[in-house]
## 1
Amino acid sequence: MARSMTRRDFLRKGAALGLGVTALYGLEGCTLPQPGLQPEAPKALKKVTIAQGADAATMDPHNHSITITSNILAHIYDSLGQRNPEKNYAYEGLLAESWEIVDDLTIDLKLRRGVTFSNGEPFNAEVCKYNLDRIMGKLPGVAPPFIAKWYPKLKDAQVLDEYTVRVTTSEVDVFLLQRLLDLEMVPKEYTQEHGFEKLAHEPVGTGPYTLKEWVREEHITLVARDDYWRGRPAIDEVVFRPIPEDATRIAELQAGNVDLIVNVPPDSVPAIEADENLEVKSVPSTRVAMVIFDTEREGPLDMKHPKVRQALNYAVDRDAIIKHILGGYGIKLATVAPEYFVGYDPDLEPYPYDPEKARQLLAEAGYPDGFEIKDFRVGRGRFLRNVEVAQAIADQLAQVGVKVTLNAMEFGVWAKDTNKHIIGDMSLAALGNPYFDAWNTIYTLCRSDNVWSWYSNPEVDKYIDEGGSTLDPVKHEQAVKKALELLYEDPPFIFMYQLVDVYALNKRLKWSPRSDELIYMYEATT
């Protein structure tokens, strides 16, 4: 890593929006040029090719929760709002010009006028309500989409006038506004006529690009809209290629066949930076890594043994893992709240590496000779060198008498089991957080009886519930901090690090990475 990440790096100003491209000129029909005059040469196509690790799952923005797919669909569909990295990722209006929190259960959305879908359909309050009705399962004969589970308290959507929608919930939803602003809009007439099945492979959106071609597992080609409401994109054509192998992505970048690649391994950075045409950029991610304990299994990791779980935190050398395995691309954490998250507490410091303290706590807990962890799970390849990180953790735990059997499995199998509430004795995971708020993480992973929680502490539940039942930002953050203080002392995890996303790109592309992992070419130029 050329230099350490700072908060200034994280908040640095992104690339300015590009100017529109003039029309192409050429000969018309068979008309010959006048003597002494030469036809104006067509301008070169401005094209950018991006290599991610996988293909899109669908073209239906409501039926997935995959970052790779989101990066593609963000070019086709607009959401109601968007985060501005130049303003610490605060929300700004997109299809919604503004919004008003009427009360704890009601939000009014004021929609933008003059926006059309790529097929000419107008965007208005009826279309917005139609999208919300789909989420709530209110469209006859249409099953709720995948993302409906993120809107469990949504109750109703009413059209107040042509460009105003009132949204109500059955209970307080602390993230309702964020979820609404993140919602991408699909067309009403098109899906009523052709069904959502067609939308899943022939998308129609209000975004800056339209789909030209999708050759599955090969490429997706998007072309700029001349009539986009914010102005024509500076880049004419955006191509996404699925390339799973790190080495292949790097080779394609070096050969000039792609312009931007993701998940650059640290040991490849020097070779890329040695190429005068290429550069490496990194940014702190919202994704946080931790080792989740299954405290529901009777044994040394259960809720009766907080000292054991503290001991394992003391036994792991996070600094060495970040330096030697991640190449510096990680930020050590005390809890699951990075510095810029709601709930971050500077008074909580990361557990120090202290094997002697770990052995002492194990002895006090009744395990002076250690114990055995028979199933430490990790899903291969999901984030940077996670198998190598898991192996290092296992080796370090062995130094304090905890024998660990590592179970590195295909990520799809790992994810399927995790969704069934199965993680072995413990599991290395990294949870993204689109809300920049630690409440989302602890509610998901620490609230009793949640499908992704293997931990139960009534006092923690109390503060999680307090934080989730108020829209007062001060009361909300106070409750989150209290919950994190308790979790620090009674750890449900080995707290690890905040990931740093590493990209490599051709210098001709003017683009800055974002902490929310969005790759968006409307904000880029060449």
Note: The first helix runs from residue 7 to 10.
## 2
Amino acid sequence: MNKKILGDFQTPLHLAKQIVSRLNDDGFHWARVLEPTCGMGNFIQAIIEAELPVEAIIGIEIQANYVQQALRLITLSDTRIQILNQDIFASDLRQWHTQDPLLILGNPPWITNSEQGAKNGDNLPTKSNFKQLAGLDALTGKSNFDVAEYIWIKLLHDFKHTDTTIALLCKTSVARNVLRYCHDAHIGIRDARMYRIDSQKWFAASVDACLFVLSLTDEHPDYAIDVFANLSAQSPESQIGFVDKTLVANIDTYHATRLIAGRSPIEWRQGIKHDAAMVMELHRKDNRWCNKAGESVDVEDAYIYPLLKSSDLQAHKSSLPTRGVIVTQQYIGEDTHRLQESAPRLWRYLNHHAEILDARKSSIYTNKPRFSIFGVGDYTFAQHKVVVSGFYKQALFVPVMPVDGKPVLCDDTCYLLPCKSALEAIVLAAALNHTLTQRFIRSIIFTDAKRPITKTLLSSINLEALIEHIPLNELQDCIDSLPLIIGTHSTTIRVGEDHTQLLNDLFAVEKRLL
């Protein structure tokens, strides 16, 4: 069976030995060891060579060729070892329940269910919405999960109420999802720890990975994870855990900055979504608009808006956008057939490229007007905005002003805060770039996520509390040192010496509550 289909990353023996040694040094002791996806048996060999007082070792493996390799570890003088050619998803693991302490050790597949499905793999559990996701979440990707995550959850359920320690190599994102699951499902754990692993060195994989260890308990659960820089580190560098029902990346830093935690008085929005960059996104060439195929685009100018993408914000290069985007609707669901009369050149252009637009796969376009877009509403056309990329580990907030009287739009890799004035956009961007905000963001951000900055994260920043707690001289310094302001702006912003007046200027006119 193809290794890519199985997400097969065999653990080098040297790494397996390091892991067994670290677990032993940390004071974990077990009468039995179970490896649910044992491969060629390197973890089993590491247990044997460590000469630990283990009474039984069970390995489960779906691939027959690996089973044959692992069986070579069994000697006539060592009857403790069983190697079983089984599918972990079809195995009843509860048969190994005893009163003796158990260690579950291993390295389950590093692949998602959707990736494996795309490769026609069958190393999957029975299809189910096992996290009980509802509606849109189940349809649009949150129901996608790592196979390792499902194995974790099977182990948690099969061995709850037993004296079991689970120590598995996995992606750090999987470890966090498992922690959330334990917390939400009220599965008691203790002594959770994460040892970061150099996955490039050991597996030639560019992904954040770790050894995730936890012990099951029925008494006094503790949902905090001590995070160690590597397997040799003697003390944790941080602690992940739940504060106010929110999973945070650094509990200490969160407590130090939580004075700005709360709810944004203005709703953050995601940028425009069209899923057809070849047709909808434009660039200037010889004073004319061209699409990504290099074709000259002749459509009504009223339907082309300046566009920002994530890379434009991080580059710090230009205050004027160099891209454009075609906007077919002013609000979601607006009838687009009207364009045949109001914008005949645009209508011809869209129909010329209808094959691309009609082939968009996302279910959000189903039963919507032809050539629809999303992430569009009154907020899209706000003349002043604060914009931030969702894709970078360092959150840079950029004030955005109109260009030639037109609002500047951003794509769906970005989030925007619609503002009612240049004052609001510049002051809020400066405050969000302040050290206090950046420390707060670092305490809750998980930088290995595909999209580290999310609407949920941004919405948790109480902008009014933020303005109140930044000394005005520091806020002025942040304004004066903004690395980038997009668009046409000629106003010098001075915040004065009165917090109350500034808060009134920013928030008193209207409360744009979520």
Note: The chain has two domains: 3-243, 269-508.
